[in-house]
Amino acid sequence: MGKRRKSDLLMISLTRKIRRLHPDLAARHLLMAAHLYYDHGQPIMSDHEYDEMAKYVVMNWDALHPTRVWQLVGKKMTLATGMHFKFTTLTIDASHSWYLREKGSLPHLARYCTSIMFESPTNGHYAKVRG
Predict the structure, then answer these.
(1) Which of 37, 39, 60, 101: CA 20 to 30 A from 80?
(2) What is the pTM of this model?
């Protein structure tokens, strides 16, 4: 067997890391990453990481909590884009905490965010934040 390229080894490592997560936790990571990317323009993970996590979530769709299924909108949308995801206030707060822990600051967070509350089918609330 020939030598593996470094990129192949990184992909194997990433796949193993993702598969250690419960699918619902992976879905939460997707939601937080999508919020940071689409609403703040601040990516927290690479496109490759995001795509691999999305595939894992879709492959394990039946293991997701009903709230996550509602937030992700559907399997096809989960694989295509996070632009239409529904973010709960908990998702938003967690994504901000995650970004602050990883990067140290979230530019323009307080200055540009406005929240609008909507009812969810699970009798909860979610806020779609737009800068």
Answers:
(1) 101
(2) 0.73
